[in-house]
Amino acid sequence: MIVHDNSILEALLRGATHYLDLGNGAEAAVYYGIDGGAAMLAPNGTRRSGRWVMSSTGYHVDWEGGPSADWQIDIEPGRIGYRDGDGVEKGRVTKIVPGNAIAA
């Protein structure tokens, strides 16, 4: 079920770090700041910063010097998935940690 309720989506994202299984042993971590800032630790160790905002279909992230993308959170019992703007699953949440767990 795609989360369309912005209050639920904000509760899952704002002020939390999501660890994602991207398949093939690759893991990324994304922090969604309370102030709309975002930080990512990519599987190759690259760090990115950017901004995120809620949208009518989920949320949108703009990475500085990198891509911009629309995202949706898909929740099923025992699973939380990340879907891109086209609805294609790109990763699964392995854990959610309060605060910025990837701060350098």
List its salient traits.
104 residues; mainly beta; globular; Lipocalin
Describe the structure.
The chain is mainly beta. The chain has a single domain, classed as Lipocalin (Beta Barrel), CATH 2.40.128. It has one helix and eight strands. It has one helix at residues 6-13; strands at 16-23, 26-32, 37-41, 47-54, 59-63, 68-76, 79-84, 89-98. The chain has an eight-stranded antiparallel barrel with strand order 1-2-3-4-5-6-7-8. A hairpin with a 5-residue loop joins β3 and β4. The chain is globular, with a radius of gyration of 13 Å. It starts with 5 loop residues before the first helix and ends in a 6-residue tail after the last strand.
Q: Specify the structural class.
A: mainly beta
Question: Would you state the CATH class?
Answer: Mainly Beta
Beta-strand content:
over 45%
The shape is: globular
Strand order of the largest sheet: 1-2-3-4-5-6-7-8
Oligomer: single chain
Strand tally = 8
Largest sheet: 8 strands, antiparallel, barrel
Helix and strand run? HEEEEEEEE
CATH topology: Lipocalin
> What's the number of helices?
1
- Return the domain count: 1
What's the pLDDT, averaged over the residues? 96
Distance between the termini: 34 Å
> Can you tell me the residue ranges where pLDDT is under 50 for at least 5 consecutive residues?
none
Radius of gyration: 13 Å
CATH architecture: Beta Barrel
The helix content, as a percent range, equals under 10%
Give the topology.
Layout lengths: L5 H8 L2 E8 L2 E7 L4 E5 L5 E8 L4 E5 L4 E9 L2 E6 L4 E10 L6
In short:
With 104 residues, the chain is mainly β. It contains one helix and eight strands. It has one domain: Lipocalin (Beta Barrel), CATH 2.40.128.640.
